[in-house]
Specification:
Blueprint: H1 3-15, H2 28-38, H3 43-56, H4 60-65, H5 68-75, H6 82-97, H7 106-109, H8 117-128, H9 137-146, H10 156-168, H11 178-192, H12 211-214, E1 232-242, E2 245-250, E3 261-262, E4 265-266, H13 272-279, E5 288-289, E6 293-296, E7 301-310, E8 322-325, H14 327-330, H15 337-346
Parallel strand pairs: 1-7
Antiparallel strand pairs: 1-2, 1-4, 2-3, 2-8, 5-7, 6-7
Bound molecules: iron/sulfur cluster.
């Protein structure tokens, strides 16, 4: 048995997390949901979302039968909305292609939308007890440090090397439950001990063998991504107000905030009043510029300039692409985080 596996399994008995709401549940649907929610998101943030989701859609069939709008509304605030769209799409594929039975093997799980190799492996481990290696961001950090691997883990060469190490570190015995404990221990170590900013090496069960610790390179590993400064984009949100309601429009299914509700958006160089007249058939009074808002995506920064406009003519635009909605009700819909912030800051008082 590799030393790393023995030590982690032993460590987990006392120091691992044993009381997460999705633990002890072999239902592949519950395992899958928790794994997707936990991507790029902390456990404490996920717990209430997971509970609400399981209450609303207790089975994979319930999720597959739900509307995408209902799924996005429940996901609202958790971010990375493509996860919710893929979850919904994958549930429908499991119903259609596997008669509602979640596939058991990592290779098949991995073919479902939104499930990469590591997530597929985690589902195969926790739901079906299969011997598969995981390699999410936290685990990459542990292996890069433990094996002293230099180089940005996003590079294919480094990534392949880390996968080799992940495979070679798996417990070799087939004692019942061992692979699950080992995998959970890796996740827990990454979340609580071998953290990015403040690794607690003196409390780490891997300290003796850890190359980064021996060579005093803990803070240099894993190698960070070569920095490119993010481009900045600007946009104008049209906050069209009429009878205590705001106009929201559904964004296209693909692209940023796909399928979510947002105020109509235009470029900063476009005349607002004539845009409203010609593209939305709405006459507006002079606008009020509200404080701008910054939002960061993975590949760019967005500066949002909100403009409040009072509608003076009856508007004919209507669902399904547009809705007039009270700001307080909009918070219940699938809306992106900056729109939520905007509404809370400006429209739950007396602007409208
Ligand atoms: S000794 Fe430190 S750097 Fe090495 S695995 Fe443990 S916590 Fe991470």
């Amino acid at each position: 048995m590799p030393v790393i596996a023995t030590r982690l399994i032993e460590w987990h008995k006392q120091h691992g997390r044993h009381d997460l709401p999705w633990q002890g549940n072999r239902d592949p649907y519950a395992v899958w949901l928790s794994e997707i929610m936990l991507q790029q998101t902390q456990v404490s943030t996920v717990i209430p979302y997971y509970a609400r989701f399981m209450r609303e859609f207790p089975t994979l069939r319930d999720l597959a039968q739900a509307s995408l709008d209902a799924v996005l509304a429940l996901w609202s605030g958790l971010g990375y909305y493509s996860r919710a769209r893929n979850l919904h799409w994958a549930a429908r594929q499991v119903m259609q292609n596997y008669q509602g039975q979640f596939p058991e093997h990592r290779e098949l799980i991995q073919q479902l939308p939104g499930i990469g190799r590591s997530t597929a492996a985690a589902i195969a481990v926790f739901a079906f007890g299969q011997r598969e290696a995981i390699l999410d961001g936290n685990v990459k950090r542990i292996f890069a440090r433990y094996f002293g691997i230099t180089g940005y883990p996003g590079k294919p060469k480094i990534q392949n090397l880390l996968w080799e190490k992940a495979e070679a570190s798996l417990p070799t015995s087939y004692r019942s439950g061992e692979i699950e404990i080992y995998t959970q221990a890796l996740m827990d170590l990454g979340a609580t001990v071998c953290t990015r900013r403040t690794p607690l090496c003196d409390a780490c069960p891997l300290q003796q063998q850890c190359i980064a610790w021996q060579e005093k390179r803990v803070y240099q590993l894993p190698t960070t991504k070569p920095r490119k400064s993010l481009p900045q984009k600007e946009t104008v949100f049209l906050l069209l107000a009429q009878q205590q309601k705001l106009l929201l429009t559904k964004r296209p299914a693909t692209g940023i905030w796909g399928g979510l509700w947002c105020p109509p958006e235009i470029g900063t160089d476009i005349d607002v009043v004539s845009y409203c007249q010609h593209h939305l058939s709405i006459n507006v009074q002079a606008s009020v510029k509200l404080p701008s808002l910054d939002h960061q995506f993975t590949h760019f920064k967005l500066r949002i300039h909100p403009q409040l406009l009072h509608v003076v003519s009856e508007s004919l635009i209507a669902p399904p692409q547009f809705i007039w909605i009270k700001p307080s009700d909009a918070l219940e819909q699938g809306i992106p985080a900056p729109v939520r912030k905007l509404l809370k800051q400006n429209f739950l008082t007396d602007h409208v």
